[in-house]
Amino acid sequence: MAPRTSDKSHGVRRLGFGVSGPHGTPLVSPEHTGAMIDHAFARGVRLFDTAPSYGAGEAERRLGEALKRLPRYECIVSTKAGITSAGLTRRNRDFSADAVRRSVEASLKRLKQTRIDWLLLHGPAPHELTDELVKTLVDLKFQGEVGAIGIAGRGAEFDAAIATGQFTVFMAPVHAALKPEAIERLNRIKATGAELVGFETLTPAHRRFPAPLSPGSTWRLARTLLGRSLPAPQTPMTSEECLYWALFEAVAHRVVTTTTRMEHLDANISAVEILRSGRMIAR
Questions:
Q1: Using 50, 70 and 90 to split pLDDT, how confident is the model at 235?
Q2: What is the pLDDT of residue 87?
Q3: Which of 56, 74, 158, 218 is 20 to 30 A from 279 via CA?
Q4: Is residue 62 domain-resident?
Q5: Beta strand residue intervals within 57-199, DSSP E
Q6: What is the pTM of this model?
């Protein structure tokens, strides 16, 4: 039976849940991941973002199991292509047209779907956005396997994607510690009319050496030590302030956050509900 949706759910459509990081590892059980997806949906979250590189496809498999219980037509399922993994340390990069097509086929099987709502290239370099790759993405969209094509990245690849005129979803870091050139790039993205989706939005609220450790904080610490992510910027803010900045100052259309703790998920959802009601703005 699908989880019931609360009456307040319409205020949470700008928040997505990332089935990522520890949700693709043994740090979190498949049952716990599924319960968090169910709970997020019941409280109004409709965007679920994942990727084949999260746990060598394990995160996609977990989302696919959860989608069996949810009204599929109400969900936005977002996954990526271009980077795959074999565990935490080994990553394979291939943005060739054939590799991306194979990645989509494998993702559809793991997700148990016939269509991916948003397919995002996972951090390609500008030179990897070849005409052949863009044509393949457009073909996948025309064939109905993909609803919208987009890009998840951090820098110059966005300018290259904008130049093609084919990308309609951009997933980028959106937080208050961004440098002016990054803010300027976000404004260029919004000027195209594309969907801007923020990630790392809560980064300024994360303690650098959190205690006690949770699966999520353990994951972030491991990625920092491996050089896979940057330490949290020194701009101390609450989670509510981070969300306000992203959604009302940077004006991202949506933000995607992930957590392994149900209480953190509830806190993020409640913060967005407060923002929508205007109570935080009034303060």
A1: low
A2: 60
A3: 74
A4: yes
A5: 76-81, 83-85, 91-93, 116-122, 146-152, 169-173, 195-199
A6: 0.87
Nearest to 247 by CA among 177, 176, 185, 179: 176
Q: Please list the helix, strand and coil fractions of the chain in percent, rounded to the nearest 5, in that order.
A: 45, 15, 35
- DSSP single-letter state for residue 7: T
The token duo for 47 is: 């965007």
Inter-axis angle of helices 156-164 and 180-191, to 10 degrees?
10
Structural domain includes residue 143: yes
pLDDT level of residue 282 (50, 70, 90 thresholds): very low
**Domain with 239 in it: what CATH number?**
3.20.20.100
Catalytic positions: 54
Please check the confidence at residue 209 and state whether its pLDDT lies above 90.
no
Query: What are the angstrom distances between the C-alpha of 112 and each of 19, 23, 32, 35, 137?
Result: 15, 18, 19, 18, 20
Question: Higher confidence at residue 145 or residue 236?
Answer: 145
Domain count, the chain: 1
Tell me how long the chain is.
283
- What is the extent of the structural domain holding 49? 9-282
Residue 271 lies inside a defined structural domain of this protein: yes
pLDDT in tens, 78-128: 999 999 876 656 679 999 999 999 999 999 999 999 999 999 999 999 999
Task: Please provide the DSSP assignment of 82-97 as one string.
Answer: SEEESSSS-EEE--SH
CA distance 22 to 183: 29
d(CA 225, CA 125): 24
Question: pLDDT tens across 127-172, in order?
Answer: 999 999 999 999 999 999 999 999 999 999 999 999 999 999 999 9
Tell me if 105 is assigned to some domain.
Answer: yes
E-strand ranges in 73-168 read 76-81, 83-85, 91-93, 116-122, 146-152
Identify which of 101, 20, 29 has the alpha carbon closest to the alpha carbon of residue 57: 20
